[in-house]
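In this supplementary section we document a worked example of the pipeline. Step one takes a protein sequence of length 351 as its only input; no multiple sequence alignment statistics are reported here. Step two produces a three-dimensional model, which step three serialises into structure tokens for compact storage. The input and output of this example are shown verbatim.
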Amino acid sequence: MWNRQDALKILENKNIAKEISTYFEIMLNKRPSRVKVDSMIPAKKSDDIDHLWIEQEHIRDEFKEIFDKTTFNGLKKPNFSYLDLKIKIAEKIFENCHFCEMRCYVNRTTNKGSCGVMNSKIASEFVHTGEEAPLVPSHTIFFTGCNFGCVYCQNFDISQFPEAGMEISEKKLAELIDRRRKEDSRNVNFVGGDPTPNLLYILKTMKLCTENIPVIWNSNFYMSEGAMKLLDGFVDLFLSDFKYGPEGCAERLSKVQDYWNTVTRNHKMAKDSGDMVIRHLVLPNHVECCSKPILKWISENLGKETVVNIMGQYRPVYMAQKCNEIMRYPSHQELEEVVNYAKKLGLINLI
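The serialised model returned by step three reads:
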């Protein structure tokens, strides 16, 4: 399974190993995952959403210290855990949905929001060997549906068709995750579409897993602040898709508003919460408005050690041919300019 030499050698890269050290320690079973620790922290049970949030934030404030001190020998399950608390809050949100910044506030037990997702459906699950070197082999779970409407979506066949895919019970998926881990997957990688509409389902699934495995949140990062607080102390590595700069590109190309403020806030919260790898797909004609502002913001706000994957595999698919600004492949000159700019900013962990 470990058939990529760079996936082995990445462990020897001291800069990257230091930046995402906790993820590597969990992946190598040197320490328990955040999910494991969550399930061992006792929490106060309530049916009142305000009381639940007060307890959530109280434990969240103390989680880092608890997590750093917890070993496999110190694990003991309480009657009602921090993970149970997160699930309880997610159930409340599901009935008045604001998992993402679309904030539809629909009851998703009976209706669909902007994402089109009511019951979580999975397009595919497999051990992916084509992801970033620190992640492979990665047990990647693709959900259907998405809160974005990207005109150039590379996965439009699943993101724009939430009714497609299979309904798999949380128990069955947990068994698959455990089996893949035993078969040598480095992590479980929730993606789509986007995983955000499926947060409740994911929390419930991970509660049923028995193996120690790092959780990767592979997302467009348009989560609400409440969702980010639930992910804090649950996700081991955030794999973000940082698409657009502060101009109007997000609204024009992905049909989302207030993108820059939302995504920059969430990156700061994620950086404080767990390890991180940021993806940036270079779009044709978007070097000055998107690529450079994003890289500059990362270097100034998240640190020059942040792991960044500058991606050059954009293809003008789906409805991109109808949009003049992105109807071609990015040029070699554009890709080179973006990489050189990242190096000029002093970003040292480019993969």
